[in-house]
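Summary for the steering committee. One of the milestones for this cycle was to obtain a three-dimensional model of the protein with glutamic acid bound, which we needed before selecting residues for the alanine scan. The sequence and ligand used are listed below.
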Amino acid sequence: MSTKQISKNKKSQKSSNLDRTADLAINNLFRSIDSRCTGYITPKQFWKEMAKGGILKTDPRLQKVNDELEGLNNAAGQEHKIYLDEFKRIIGHYIIVKKCLTGDMAIPDFNSLTKKIVDIYKETKPNSGGHVADYIPQLARVNPEFYGVAVCSVDGQRFGHGDYEQKFCLQSTCKPINYCIAHKELGADKVHNHIGREPSGRSFNEMALNGDGLPHNPLINSGAIMCTSLIQRKLEIADRFDHVLKTWNDLSGDVAPTFNNSVYLSEKQTADRNFALAYFMRENNAFPENTNIIETLEFYFQCCSIEVTAAAMASVAGTLANGGVNPLTGKKVFDAATVKNCLSLMNSCGMYDFSGEFAFTIGFPAKSGVSGALLVVIPNVMGIALWSPRLDELGNSVRGVEFCKKLVEHYSFHNYDILVNNGAKIDPRKKKYESKIDNVIALIWAGSVGDIDEIQRLEALGVDLEAADYDGRTAIHLAASEGQLETVKYLVTKKVNISPIDRWGGTPIKDAKKGKHTELVEFLEKVSIG
Ligand code: GLU
C-alpha cells in the first residue's frame, strides 16, 4: 500500500471514529428526552426539555427545527412521533440542543434559576407600595397591578413570568441604549465632549450642568437629550428614529419593538422642563453646532415612547451582558468597549437619586424608567427585565427594586460579592452543587499538601473547616494521612473535630498510623487525651 493510501485510510478511520462518537452522543440526547423509554419522543416533549434549559421554541437559532416539527405535526393531524432516525436528521446535530440538554450552557441549572425567580416574584407581588407615574394620562391609566419579569442569559436561555408579554414604554430605559448608539457612531471622546460621566447627585431633571457647562451624565434628562442630538446627525429625522428603532430590534429577541404615538404626543405636551433643559444647554454652548433643538427634543420623546415587552427587554439586557453580541442572533450590535462604558454609567447613575444606594447594597448595573421598567445587566451571566408600574418617591419601580434586593441576597451578583462570597450565595454559572463542592475539594486538597495559607483563605470565605467530601473525608484526615504535622496543628488550633469518621470508619489517627507519621500520631494522641 502506498503512503498516500495509508494516510487516506487513517484519515477516514479517524473521521468514522468521530462520526461514531457523535452518533453515540445523539443517541444519548435522544434517550435523555425519551424518559419513558418508548423509543420515540414528541415535539412537545422535545420543547419541554429544551425550555427547562432555557431554549424556547421561538429561538431564532432553532427556527428551522421548529418549522420542520410543526410541519410534521400538521401532516399527521396529531402529535408526531419522532423516532431516533428522524431525531438525528432534524435535531440531533444542533450544537445548541446538545449544550442545552447536557447542561453545558452559561447557566447550567437554568431550571433552579427560574424557580427562584418565580419565588421572588411571588414574594414581591403583594407589595403594593408606591404610585404609577401620572404626569401623562397614558402612564396614569396603566393598570398598577401589572408585574412581569423576564431573563435572557448570555447563551440565549430565556424565561418569563407574570405580565412579561405586555408592552410598556421605555421612558428612561431608552437612555443607556441611546448612549451606546452615539458611542458606537462617534466613540467615547466625541460623546463625552458634550456629556460628562459623573453622577449629578441631583434629581434626574434638575436644571444643572457640571463645571464644564455640560450635562452631568447621559442617564439624566439633560444628558439623554444631548445624547439623542448626537445620533446620526446627517440623516433626516425620520431616518434617525428608524435607526434607533432598528437598533432596538437588533437588541431584542423575537418580539419587535413598536411605537406608542399617544405617549409621544403626551410627552411632547408636558415637556416644559425638558424644553427648558435643552435651551439651558444651548445657552451654555453644550450642543454641537447647528443642533435643531425642537427636532432633538421630539426625537428624544419618540425614543421614550418606544414600546417593548419584558421578554424583549430581557434580550436587550442579555445582549449588554454579553458584551454587545445578541445571544439569540449572534449579531454584534455594539462593541464591548461601548458596553463597558455604558454599564459603568448604569452602575453609578442608573437609578435616579437611589443610584449610590443601589450600587452599594445591590451592586449591579441597572436603569429604571418612570413606566416602571427596570433593565438589569449581570455581566457575563444574563440580562433581566422587570416591569411593575408603581414607583417610589425617587421614580424607581417599587417591586423592581425589591426584586433586585432579594435576588442579590440569594445570588452572588453584587459587583464585589467575589470578595466575600463564602459559598452561601449561589453562582448560577456553576453547575449544580459546584460552588459548594469546589470549596470543600479545595479545603481537603489544601489539607493534603499542607497549604495553610489556602486553608486560611477558605476560612476567610466562611468555609467550614470540618466540611467533608462525599466519602466523609475532611481536611484533617488528609493532612494526617500525608504527614502534614503543621497543618494538623493548625486545624487543631481551630478546634476542628480531631476524630471525624469517614465512610470506611477511618479517623485522622488511623490515617497517620497507616502512613507511619509517628510524630503526628503522638501529637494527635496527646490532644485527644486532652
Ligand atoms: N419621558 C420622561 C422625561 O423625559 C422620562 C422620564 C424617566 O423615565 O425618567 O421626562
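Key point for the committee: The beta strands are 40-41, 82-83, 148-153, 158-162, 167-169, 258-259, 306-309, 366-368, 373-378, 382-387.
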